[in-house]
Amino acid sequence: MQFFLDTANVDEIRAMTATGLVDGVTTNPSLIAKSGRDLVQTIKEICTLTTGPVSAEVTASDAEGMVKEGEFLRDIADNVCVKVPLTWEGLKATHVLSGKGHPVNVTLCFSANQALLAAKAGATYISPFIGRIDDTGADGMELIGEIRTIYDNYPELDTQILAASIRNVLHVKQSALLGADVATIPANVLQALVKHPLTDKGLAAFMADWESTGQSILP
Ligand code: G3P
Predict the structure, then answer these.
(1) Which of 10, 99, 143, 181 is deepest in the core (most CB within 10 A)?
(2) Rounded to an integer, what distance in angstroms lies between the CA atom of residue 47 and that of residue 54?
């Protein structure tokens, strides 16, 4: 399973890539706004911090505009992945962009049928928004399972499931259990994955016992 970092904060990305755990980055217009920085500069900088795909989202609402913006974004760096919303125009843009060899992440997916359409249009990634479905009182994980089943039923659909809108560690575990190809994760959730109270307790006991021996490993 691949881990992408879901942020436009370059300091966060720099810190987290040092672990070797980050396989790519996803951004969206809200994350760019939160960063307070220029889109092009930010995407350019992020693309120097990872060799993996960096999703940058178009903001046009018509297919022609999305294609133009997508091609502009792709010129920023080789590892830019064009992010397109799951609308009829977005599907048309996905078809054109993927036909020209550009990787496309189709975002704002909330149903299995939408995921089927995106795959047929040529999406490289489909981004189901788990947390936002949970927010409505439904179960976002059900969607991941449904998409996995549908894509596995039709091996010619090679779109990867990119679990998005991940809010907690359970979302990551369940996405992995259900066979999502990628999870895009906020930095605080990625860091929380390592935590377990028994690890902390066990380590404290090991260190106390080690200190009582008076030894050191290095001469
Ligand atoms: O990858 C999409 C993600 O950024 C949306 O997350 O928490 O705004 O629903 P959220």
Answers:
(1) 143
(2) 7
Please identify, by atom number, the ligand 1 atom nearest to the C-alpha of residue 184: 1
Please state, in angstroms and rounded to a whole number, the distance separating the CA atoms of residues 160 and 167: 20
For the CA of 31, the closest atom of ligand 1 is 4
Where exactly are the structural domains of the chain? 2-213
83 is catalytic: yes
* Distance of CA 217 from the midpoint of ligand 1 (Å): 45
pLDDT, tens digit, for every residue of 129-162? Answer: 999 999 999 999 999 999 999 999 999 999 999 9
Residue with tokens 């904060």: 9
What is the pTM for the complete model shown?
A: 0.96
| CATH number of the domain located at residue range(s) 2-213 in this protein | 3.20.20.70
- Name which of 17-21, 49-53, 103-107, 181-185 the model is least confident about: 17-21
Of 44, 68, 83, 100, the catalytic one is 83
Burial of residue 72 (number of CB atoms within 10 Å: 0-12, 13-18, 19+):
middle
Residues across the chain: 219
For the purposes of burial, counting CB atoms within 10 Å of the CB of 199, is it exposed (0-12), middle (13-18) or buried (19 or more)?
exposed
Task: Render pLDDT for 23-80 as a digit per residue (tens, 0 to 9).
Answer: 999 999 999 999 999 999 999 999 999 999 999 999 999 999 999 999 999 999 999 9
